[in-house]
Amino acid sequence: MSDVNADDWVSAGHRPMGFPEFVIVIASIMALNPLAMDMMLPALPNIGAAFNIPVANHLQLVLSTFLIGFGAGQFIMGPLSDRFGRRPVLLGGMAVYAVASVLAVAAPSFETLLLARALQGFGTSATRVIATSIVRDCYVGRRMASVMSLAMMIFIAVPVIAPSFGQAVLLVTQWRGIFVVLMLYGLLALAWSVWRLPETLPESERRSLAPADVLAAYWQTVTNRQTIGYALAAGSVMGALFAYVFSAQQVFTGIYHLGHYFPLAFAAIAAGTAVAGFLNAKLVGRLGMRVISHGALTLYTVVAGVMLLTETLGMLPLALFMALSALMMFSFGMMVANFTALAMEPQGHIAGTASSLYGSITTLIGIAVGTAIGQSFDGTLLPFSTGFFLSTLAALAIVLVVEKGRLFKPHHRPIV
């Protein structure tokens, strides 16, 4: 995007920041979540050895408890931000994240570590909800989708490098050093937000925290066909992605015997999502959210079917698995920002609460599906490929119902 274009896109809601800085700040606070997730992947065997965890599948709890805190926290953060504004809730969540990182560094037991991980996830729930709400405060429609795509392109680059970064930390220190790095990054993002990020929700648009009002906002969110439909679909496709992340270390080191090269393979595959974010930001204004996301969901379904078929036939070597996984990541990247924008489009006046409920629904469904698939790992890719295919079919069916069978066709106004 040229400087002229960037200036044209500046919203008064986030001044004095210009458009490029706004996108980078949003991406940096959103990146707290994937950084805390994916830096841990190379350290799972070390954590298992430190706490004498004999069952490898149990180490997936280091990831799933983080996501449980992340999913549950979003129920709270949205209504709070609609009442008190975006800044105080965001800064408070980031402070919780920093404190939880300190607890993880000092954790004397596996149970304490899991508590710290849940608190980290709870803290990052504020960053995800508030980032989405701030974007919705400042932009709407295809512009919102483009801003989200640009932010996603930057923050999705984090999972590409995070496992390699975690592996690098392990070369010079123990696994606890990863939490030191996470704490330092959180403090840096917190300082930048304190210094530059303005409040984007005017006093006149703030909502009451009275239970009746909060429940009314939740009811309005879940009864909107477009919002709840795309939340359920996003949760289904996210389940396959979480299952991939939960079992990636076991797949690459246990099935394909990559050892310390695992972070490189993970990075190569995750790069597809960053590419998708860049393309989506360029194309969504011209083609629209539905054309792109529905096409990506169709590709996601085809990839899932091919992976299940080849694994069933015993014909899924490393090169093919990596190619299919990269396509999975690419199609997910073309879906996620557009699904979010489509779900949030009808909810501008309750953006915080709607973002919070949307995030909770998608994350908790993703955790449930991803954990079920991940805990079924049996030394083969059959449980993952089966779960991937079934969850993708569910997402496609949901979108078909939401759109009343009219895929790829834009609407003049949101579906209700």
TrEMBL record:
<feature type="transmembrane region" description="Helical">
    <location>
        <begin position="228"/>
        <end position="246"/>
    </location>
</feature>
<keyword id="KW-1003">Cell membrane</keyword>
<dbReference type="GO" id="GO:0042910">
    <property type="term" value="F:xenobiotic transmembrane transporter activity"/>
</dbReference>
<dbReference type="InterPro" id="IPR005829">
    <property type="entry name" value="Sugar_transporter_CS"/>
</dbReference>
<feature type="domain" description="Major facilitator superfamily (MFS) profile">
    <location>
        <begin position="22"/>
        <end position="406"/>
    </location>
</feature>
<dbReference type="InterPro" id="IPR036259">
    <property type="entry name" value="MFS_trans_sf"/>
</dbReference>
<dbReference type="InterPro" id="IPR020846">
    <property type="entry name" value="MFS_dom"/>
</dbReference>
<feature type="transmembrane region" description="Helical">
    <location>
        <begin position="147"/>
        <end position="172"/>
    </location>
</feature>
<feature type="transmembrane region" description="Helical">
    <location>
        <begin position="381"/>
        <end position="402"/>
    </location>
</feature>
<keyword id="KW-1133">Transmembrane helix</keyword>
<dbReference type="InterPro" id="IPR011701">
    <property type="entry name" value="MFS"/>
</dbReference>
<keyword id="KW-0813">Transport</keyword>
<feature type="transmembrane region" description="Helical">
    <location>
        <begin position="258"/>
        <end position="279"/>
    </location>
</feature>
<protein>
    <recommendedName>
        <fullName>Bcr/CflA family efflux transporter</fullName>
    </recommendedName>
</protein>
<keyword id="KW-0997">Cell inner membrane</keyword>
<dbReference type="GO" id="GO:1990961">
    <property type="term" value="P:xenobiotic detoxification by transmembrane export across the plasma membrane"/>
</dbReference>
<feature type="transmembrane region" description="Helical">
    <location>
        <begin position="316"/>
        <end position="344"/>
    </location>
</feature>
<keyword id="KW-0812">Transmembrane</keyword>
<keyword id="KW-0472">Membrane</keyword>
<dbReference type="InterPro" id="IPR004812">
    <property type="entry name" value="Efflux_drug-R_Bcr/CmlA"/>
</dbReference>
<dbReference type="GO" id="GO:0005886">
    <property type="term" value="C:plasma membrane"/>
</dbReference>
<feature type="transmembrane region" description="Helical">
    <location>
        <begin position="19"/>
        <end position="37"/>
    </location>
</feature>
<feature type="transmembrane region" description="Helical">
    <location>
        <begin position="89"/>
        <end position="108"/>
    </location>
</feature>
<comment type="similarity">
    <text>Belongs to the major facilitator superfamily. Bcr/CmlA family.</text>
</comment>
<feature type="transmembrane region" description="Helical">
    <location>
        <begin position="291"/>
        <end position="310"/>
    </location>
</feature>
<feature type="transmembrane region" description="Helical">
    <location>
        <begin position="356"/>
        <end position="375"/>
    </location>
</feature>
<feature type="transmembrane region" description="Helical">
    <location>
        <begin position="57"/>
        <end position="77"/>
    </location>
</feature>
<feature type="transmembrane region" description="Helical">
    <location>
        <begin position="178"/>
        <end position="197"/>
    </location>
</feature>
<dbReference type="Pfam" id="PF07690">
    <property type="entry name" value="MFS_1"/>
</dbReference>
